[in-house]
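Page 47, continued from p. 46.
Same chain as before, 274 aa.
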Amino acid sequence: MIKKCLFPAAGYGTRFLPATKVIPKEMLPIVDKPLIQYGVEEAMEAGLNEMAIVTGRGKRALEDHFDINYELESQLRGTSKETLLAGISKIIEKCSFSYTRQTQMKGLGHAVLTGETLIGHEYPFAVILADDLCVCDSQGVLAQMVAVQEKYGCTVVAVEEVPQHDIHKYGVIAGEEIEPGVYRVSTMVEKPAAEVAPSNLAVIGRYIITPDIFDILRDVKPGAGGEIQLTDALMEQAKQGNVIAYKFRGRRFDCGSVGGFVAATNYFYHMGNR
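Result:
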C-alpha cells in the first residue's frame, strides 16, 4: 500500500555555489536529465505515483519541470526533437505532484515533518534524497526496499559500507543480521566520529517510513549540528524493534558533492554512448 514518495528539496545546495544561487540543486543535470527526475523515475519503478515535494524559496523550477509546457511542446511537435520530451511527458501523465514549503532549514527530520500535510497517516511512505543517485542493473533500490518492507512491515532504511574516513558524514547503524544483507537495527547514530561509530554501515538517501514517525519527530530535540535529525526519530522506532536496515544491490553516487556529481555525469554519459 505504499503509494507516496516524499522528496525533501528545500536545501540551498551551497557546495555548488554560484550555480545554485538561482538553480535548485535538484535541477542540476546529470547529462540531460535533472537529479530529481532520476529519483522520480526510481519511485515510479517501485510502483509509487504520488510525489510529494518539500520545497523552499527559489525552487519554482521544480514545479515547472513537472508540468506541461504548451509552448515548447507545440514548437517541437512533429520534429525530430519531439522524442526528447517523451520521458518527462510520461511522468507528468502517470504521476501526481504536490508541494509544500519548508520556511526554515532545521534539518532532514524537520523537512520530513513539514511533508506530513502531503503524506498523511494512513500508509508507510518512501523518502528519496535526490542528492543520492542510485543505479542498479536490474531492480531499482526503492523497489528492492518495498519488497523488504512488505516482508517485515516496518520502517526500512538503505545502508552501504563506507570507508572509515567518511563515517562522520552519515547516520550509522548497528544491529543483528537476520538474513543476508538485512539487519534489525538496534543503534543509529548521526555523524559519529570514526573511532566511536557502531559499524561502517551508513544510511543513504532512501527510506520507507511508517507514519508514526511524524508524532516522534514533533518531540525530537535538536541533535547533531543543532538540527532536527531524522536519525534520532528513527532510533525511537528502532528501540521497539521497528527499523530494518537493508544493504541494497546497486551503486550510489553522492551528487551532493562535486566529485560524486562529476562521477555520475561520466557514468551516465558513457552508459549512453556505448
